[in-house]
Specification:
Layout: E1 14-20, E2 34-40, E3 58-60, E4 66-68, E5 72-73, H1 81-91, E6 96-98, H2 106-119, E7 128-133, H3 140-154, E8 159-164, H4 184-196, E9 200-206, H5 210-218, E10 228-232, H6 240-248, E11 252-256, H7 264-267, H8 269-278, H9 282-291, E12 296-297, H10 304-311, H11 320-325, H12 344-367, E13 368-370, E14 381-383
Parallel strand pairs: 5-6, 6-7, 7-8, 8-9, 9-10, 10-11, 11-12
Antiparallel strand pairs: 1-2, 3-4, 13-14
Helix pairs in contact: 1-2, 2-3, 3-4, 8-9
Length: 388
């Protein structure tokens, strides 16, 4: 069901229908998603020079959690800049911070969160924090250790959402080296235990295609349904079939790289014309396009001005005609070019790049261990015995 809003003044309340995650494991359990309420508010915070705070449209989830429709992505955020970006985002009302161990900056995000909580800028329970489990942590003991490391880095007692980053299983400390003794199903079972222990409020997946998502959903061992599938989606690659399939199974979609990293998307004549028509920026048009598909967006930015602008998308609605015209932008451009990606825009290239990378990294993996959760810090690379 598409999200709709109506134009209002800056102090008005905007209400719209949206899906919420299906409840898992209680008497209110439902198949698929249940209609919810998106409440986008704008308010000012005091007077003088204090910045305006915008409480971003958010979705009520089971277990009384909330996932705002617009969050802050931290992928590729430069060292030191991400701390200020998170602080700025929280000041302007962003309440959804998307992180991952592999981004190498969770410890900086943790500093920003701790400082904001200590200052009283925002309460912990009002911030939705997502993190992700890296590819070489699929065995139960590794899963638990990874989340505990993430919690220490983020200075939190729990994350609101914990995702399997990619649907692959690598040997611990390696890149592209398969772990024949690990599986997604076993990993998911341990994630379910971590939910029961309160270390993660919800669990989900990222970069799963239709077959991989269906396999997890239909596995009789799966007790807790994935809360979301975080995938790449933007006007230059809608990933439409996967979006529709995921939503049809009652799983929310979260779009990373929703701005396609700017560039040619922002300068396309159609985007320029639509921006002028609606009195918005091309970035706001792109984000609004996804939100109207009932897709949560997590644009990355380290600019306080752009972070605030990215959230200002709830006072207009793209017409059906404009949404249809935007289909011409869909040229299959992917920003996720890693050799382990199996998605269409890079699939043909990765069919030979992935095995090549596996061969080239095999010998180094015998002598060198890589701890992704220590990127940029001591312990990131260590020596190991070749027989281990």
């Amino acid at each position: 069901m598409a999200l709709t809003t109506r134009s209002v003044t800056s102090m008005a309340r905007v209400r719209a229908r949206a899906h919420v995650f299906a409840r898992a494991g209680d008497r209110a359990s439902r198949r698929g998603a249940r209609a919810g309420l998106v409440d986008a508010r704008r308010a000012t915070r005091g007077a003088g020079d204090e910045p305006a705070v915008m409480a971003i449209g958010r979705e009520s989830l089971e277990r009384r959690l909330e996932a705002p429709m617009v969050g802050l992505g931290t992928w590729k955020a430069a060292p030191n800049a991400v701390r200020d970006a998170v602080a700025s985002a929280l000041r302007v009302g962003v309440r959804h911070i998307d992180c991952a161990a592999a981004y190498g900056n969770e410890h900086e995000v943790g500093v920003a969160l701790a400082e904001a909580f200590e200052r009283g800028d925002v309460a912990r329970e009002d911030v939705f924090v997502t993190s992700k489990l890296w590819n070489d942590r699929r065995r139960p003991g590794d899963v638990r250790e990874a989340l505990e490391t993430t919690l220490r880095d983020l200075r939190l007692e729990y994350v609101d959402l914990y995702l399997i980053h990619w649907p692959v299983c690598w040997r611990r400390g390696t890149v592209l080296q398969p772990d024949a003794e690990a599986s997604i199903a076993e990993c998911w079972g341990e994630l379910e235990r971590l939910v029961q222990e309160g270390k993660a409020r919800r669990i989900g997946v990222s970069n799963f295609d239709e077959v991989q998502l269906a396999a997890l959903l239909d596995d009789p061992r799966t007790k807790i349904k994935p809360a979301c599938n975080q995938i790449e989606s933007h006007p230059m690659w809608s990933n439409d079939d996967l979006v529709r399939f995921t939503q049809s199974r009652g799983v929310r979609v979260v779009a990373y790289s929703p701005l396609a990293q700017g560039g040619s998307l922002f300068t396309h004549p159609l985007m320029v014309r639509l921006a002028k028509k609606y009195g918005k920026t091309p970035a706001q048009i792109a984000l609004r396009w996804n939100v109207q598909r009932d897709v949560i967006v997590i644009p990355k930015s380290t600019s306080a001005e752009r972070i605030k602008s990215n959230c200002d998308i709830f006072d207009f609605e793209l017409s059906e005609e404009d949404v249809l015209e935007m289909k011409i932008l869909d040229v299959g451009k992917s920003t996720a070019t890693a050799p382990w990606s199996h998605f269409a825009p890079v699939a043909s290239r990765n069919r030979w790049l992935r095995p090549l990378g596996r061969v080239l990294s095999w010998l180094p993996s015998k002598f060198i261990a890589i701890d992704v959760q220590r990127i940029g810090r001591s312990g990131f690379i260590s020596l190991r015995a070749p027989w281990s």
